Amino acid sequence: MGCRLVPVIAFCPNTTEVHIYKFFTDKWEKLHVLAKHDQIVSGIDWSRSSNKIVTVSHDRNSYVWTQEGQDWVPTLVILKLNRAALCVQWSPKENKFAVGSGAKSVSICYYEQENNWWISKVIRKKHESSVTSVAWHPNNIHLATTSTDGKCRVFSTIIKGVDTRGPQAGASVDWKFGEQIAQLDLSPTWAFGVRWSPSGKTLAYAGHSSMIYFVDDVEGSPAAQNLALRDLPLRDILFVSEKMAIGVGFDCNPLIFAADETGLWSFVRYLDERKVTPSTSKASQLSEALGKLYGQSRQGSSSDTVEPSKPRGGAHENCITCIVPLRKGSESIVKRFSTSGLDGKIVVWDLENHITISK
Fold this sequence. Notes:
Subcellular location: Cytoplasm, Cytoskeleton
Number of strands: 27
Mean pLDDT: 86
GO cellular component, one term: Arp2/3 protein complex
Helix content: under 10%
Distance between the termini: 27 Å
Radius of gyration: 21 Å
Shape: globular
Strand order of the largest sheet: 1-2-3-4
Organism: Triticum aestivum (Wheat)
Structural class: mainly beta
WD repeats: 34-65, 124-156
Order of helices and strands: EEEEEEEEEEEEEEEEEEEEEEEEHEEE
């Protein structure tokens, strides 16, 4: 799923096509259908400034779509992959994008003005399995990845003639392209949904063992926090501010995480709170008691409280697979975001009506 600014949205309905819809008065109307891929589209990202859409697919291809008048014109990108492309994201400056793949590699794509085409440089021989997600650091050079080998890695993607020294780059320009800056072995299972905080000081990603990891000072001396979840694993993460993050996944309900003044992260609550009718049957009471006991054993001594039973029956009815920020202008704090899931729904959330966002 990709969003530029609501009320315009692009998504793949689990086919080879990408549909673009716009909201008119009281209903959504389909404006365009982008049809170029031969297999299921697995990743979409819509750049905010340049108004370009990049798509990747299991057909191992990528296209950059540029709007010309009323039409969207595709340009093929040479990814140099022999397996499916799985995820994609534009860099902050929108002069590059990264594509994770099932070929145990990441393609860093950029536009070559001389030949008027998009080409790629590939980071190989680092991952031991499929790359599930990619995330750009605010400096436009560092790239974090997660993989089904359970590891989170950070690479340098500096490309001569494309990247220049800037105030945010710092010492990052000393790294060579494809050089591994860090490798985090925190998860014993598949890893998903990596994301940087707005300043780039904190990195978060999720493990399929119902864990979320927050890591500070990745390039220097990494300091990690492991937070065990009571219920089901996460699939994607979004920082809404420096001290607050939203996680989404198999619980079908966004989870709010926050850091206190000492930097300690903890689960706050579900975003989509619902009233649950209390059960009076002995079987239900036993189930609830066992659930609490299970929650205590999972969280151990790291928490003094047990998370409440998982609320059900909210906006989403199946696993949430994607969360996308919706910013206006140069906003540093995310006040709105959208989620999409396996239930075929796209939901737009307004945090100002739910929580107070910590800066």
